[in-house]
């Protein structure tokens, strides 16, 4: 995970250009940086008037970071199943945040208490995985859900897992992010 200050504005520009191009709007060509060509995993979060408008990403690096950001930006804008596709009318009020994920480390947590002991609130992104079900919250979600037990229970719900019966096969993944957000 890179925290190069020059990279953030380029990633934001990459995301904005990908969305603008899909909307048929003029986009400024983002600059270049060596990290854009290295394998990377990212999430792109879109907000409008302070409200979530889309969030899509990858937990593991499978392509170059620049391409990952562009693909996730388009997916967050046009394919997040929670929202209708973004329109050109919404474009002027859209704010973009790019989170570049560091490596994920998984541990088996047979109880909720084991899981809670593993976490560092406000720092860790968290993945819960049991059987075929999995869900993640980026570290930024701690701002809305500061209580660790509430954080985990909301994540269980997101994964479609029961909140009152902890799965014995639960794997908990932790990761950190480098976060870049447009001003405004």
TrEMBL record:
Gene3D superfamilies: Hypothetical protein ph0010, domain 1, Hypothetical protein ph0010, domain 2. Coiled coil: none annotated. PROSITE patterns: AMMECR1. Pfam families: AMMECR1 (PF01871). SUPFAM superfamilies: AMMECR1-like. It comes from the Bacteria. Residues 6-184 form the AMMECR1 domain. This is AmmeMemoRadiSam system protein A. The gene is amrA.
């Amino acid at each position: 995970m890179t925290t190069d200050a020059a990279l953030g504005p380029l990633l934001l520009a990459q995301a904005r250009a990908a969305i603008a191009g899909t909307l048929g709007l003029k986009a400024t060509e983002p600059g270049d940086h060596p990290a854009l060509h290295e394998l990377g995993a990212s999430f792109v979060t879109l907000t409008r008037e302070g409200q979530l408008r889309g969030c899509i990403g990858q937990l593991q690096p499978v392509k170059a970071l620049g391409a990952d950001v562009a693909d996730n930006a388009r997916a967050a804008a046009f394919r997040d199943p929670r929202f209708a596709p973004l329109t050109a009318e919404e474009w002027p009020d859209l704010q973009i945040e790019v989170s570049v994920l560091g490596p994920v480390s998984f541990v088996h947590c047979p109880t909720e208490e084991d899981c809670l002991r593993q976490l560092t609130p406000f720092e860790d992104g968290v993945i819960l995985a049991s059987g075929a079900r999995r869900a993640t919250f980026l570290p930024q979600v701690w701002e809305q859900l500061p209580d660790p037990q509430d954080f985990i229970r909301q994540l269980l719900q997101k994964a479609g897992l029961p909140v009152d019966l902890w799965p014995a096969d639960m794997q908990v993944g932790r990761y950190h992010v480098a976060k870049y957000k447009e001003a405004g």
